[in-house]
Amino acid sequence: MKITKLKDSSIFLWFSFFCLLLSTSTSFARTTLPARFPSSFVSPEKLSSLSSSEKNQLYRTRYFTQILDHFNFYPKSYQTFQQRYLINDTHWGGAKSNAPIFVYTGNEGNIEWFAQNTGFLYETAPHFKALIVFIEHRFYGKSIPYGGNKEVAYSNATTLGYLSSTEALADYASLIIDLKKNLSATDSPVVVFGGSYGGMLAAWFRLKYPHVTIGALASSAPILNFENITSPYSFTNIVTQDFRSESENCYKVIKGSWEQIASTADQPGGLELLRNSFKICKNYISADYLEGWLRTAFTYTAMTDYPTPSNFLSPLPAFPVKQMCAAIDDPATGNDTFKKLYGAASVYYNYSGTVTCFDLDDDSDPHDLGGWSWQACTEMIMPTSGNTEESIFPASEWKYKYRAASCKRNFGIEPRPLWITTEFGGHDIERVLKRYGSNIIFFNGLRDPWSGGGVLKNISKSIVAIVAKEGAHHVDLRFKNSEDPDWLKEVRKQEINIIGNWISQYYHDLAQLY
User: Fold this and answer.
1) Between 20 and 30 A from 488 (CA), which of 163, 346, 494, 511?
2) Which SUPFAM superfamilies match (predicted)?
3) CA–CA separation, 98 and 184 (whole Å)
């Protein structure tokens, strides 16, 4: 596959599909990082449809003076930056009663985006009389070192070198300890929560800082999605199964479409035919970008195949994979593959019906995700783009060397593919965590492509796996809905009961000390 137009090497993609594309395969090898496919090909929405007054009811914004480098003592290590966190004390029982503190360990993006899509904390806090805190990850949103100057912070490997999961975890520990001290709440138990990369951070935080948190809910956290642990074919195999489970014809149409798109693009007037078929804006089109646009839609939709309408990545109906396949199987489309694909893609990109054309040249980053390109080139080496012959996507093989070459050219650094498992573990996780870990909930929905790299079995009595056959990406953390299925209600009930036991045990242990 040949790129006819290379984009800027800053790849502003959300955790999921960025990894999918950057985990370079033999059929997608590049001399630079893969050309980006924007997270939104329509005019990007605001962070949420929530009004300002509604946001104010969810949280207040605060800042903490954070140190740049927690692990060295060079003079430059003591530089500081302002780290944003969001706080809600509406239902907090207060420090005198040692009421708990619920902390969300921020992901690779603007923390408001996650705070506005993590209803579980707000809906659970009243039951426990808990304080809610969402902490933004360094180098994302407004938590930018070097005086908040993103251009400087992202300028080279020297400045970006302070962007890592270990630094982020140390940030969270420092902020939590300081916040508890300022609130005179040193005996209040802390429970951490997170979804996706944030879920990985929550689990790792419990393992690395057990003196700061009593437990962690790690939702859709692929802590095993690293080399020699999880198959690089797992991710796309699950995407494939999601669509195939809805309709064999749907699966076959998508699988067979890639060759048809490529051959059409090579014909005289072929690109114009593709432009008209998919209503692509007139500023730019290429076969590669069109294919990426479609891949994004299929992958994101599989991840967010929620049982109720959602507006996390894009406005979507309930069961969007089913809706995509219904568009492909629609008899009115006849044998027109492009018409079928356009109908499916419109479920993701234009469910509102207001978009007149799709801009493949859109380089907007509405959720401040740009730093992930650095993390995916340093420590977060998560093979996900291998495709088997049965895959919905063209067959390909994961090759680390292509990723390494891309990262070297773009950042001048060599990835460390074994660092995460060296720092946090992962191999033989059942045997290892059983001996030293405790109080972690791993939730995974099996329709989520990332579930292949998740913990799917109980490790001990206190490290438990909750697995939902019909679940999608961190669906348990979303705001509840009157149309939620019974299985989802049961998942949340289980999580609340487990967290309640952690807190009760903490209070019991605390009482023994006084």
Assistant:
1) 346
2) alpha/beta-Hydrolases (SSF53474)
3) 9
Please list the residues that pair with 445 across neighbouring strands.
Answer: 468
Q: What are phi and psi of 467, to 5 degrees?
A: -120, 130
CA-closest candidate to residue 114, choices 44, 36, 199:
199
How many CB atoms neighbour CB 283 within 10 A? 10
Stated as kind and residue range, the H or E segment containing 429 is: helix 429-436
CA 303 to chain centre: 10
First vs last Cα of the chain: how many Å apart? Answer: 68
pLDDT of residue 53: 57
Residue 326 has a pLDDT of 98
Q: What is the mean pLDDT of residues 226-238?
A: 94
Sheet of 131-135, strands arranged across: 60-67, 80-88, 131-135, 101-105, 190-195, 215-219, 440-445, 463-468
Q: What is the Cβ-side half-sphere exposure of residue 514, based on CA atoms within 13 angstroms?
A: 5
Catalytic residue from among 314, 473, 474, 476: 473
- Based on the residue annotation, tell me whether 367 is a catalytic residue of this protein: no
Number of other residues whose CB lies within 10 A of the CB of residue 513: 6
Give the length of the chain. Answer: 514
Element (H or E) spanning 104, and its range?
A: strand 101-105
Per the prediction, the chain carries an average pLDDT of 90
Q: What is the pLDDT of residues 333-388, one digit of tens each?
A: 999 999 999 999 999 999 999 999 999 988 788 888 899 999 999 999 999 877 88
Residue 263 annotated in active site: no
CATH superfamily, domain 52-227+420-513, is Alpha/Beta hydrolase fold, catalytic domain (3.40.50.1820)
For residue range 5-34, list pLDDT tens digits in order: 323 322 234 343 444 444 444 444 333 333
φ, ψ of residue 302 to 5 degrees: the values are: -60, -40
Angle between helical axes of 337-349 and 270-278 (0-180°, round to 10) = 50
Q: What share of the chain is helix, strand, coil (3-state, %, to 5)?
A: 45, 10, 45
DSSP 3-state assignment of 193?
strand
The confidence score (pLDDT) of residue 387 equals 85
* Confidence (pTM): 0.92
The one catalytic residue in 137, 448, 451, 462 is 448
pLDDT, tens only, 28-64? 433 333 333 233 333 333 344 455 556 668 999 999 9
Element containing residue 21 per DSSP (H, E) = helix 15-22
Catalytic residue among 188, 196, 286, 373: 196
Cα 177 from Cα 68, distance rounded (Å):
17
- Pair 108, 369: CB distance under 8 Å: yes
**Helical H runs in 317-428?**
320-329, 337-349, 372-378, 400-411, 419-424
Measured CA distances, 424 to 150, 192, 209 (Å) = 29, 17, 12
Which residue, chain included where needed, has tokens 């990850």?
Answer: 137
Closest CA to 380 of 8, 13, 9: 13
Beta bridge partners of 61: 86
Say yes or no: domain 230-350 is CATH 1.20.120.980: yes
Domain limits, the chain = 52-227+420-513, 230-350
∠ CA(217), CA(304), CA(466), 5° rounding? 30
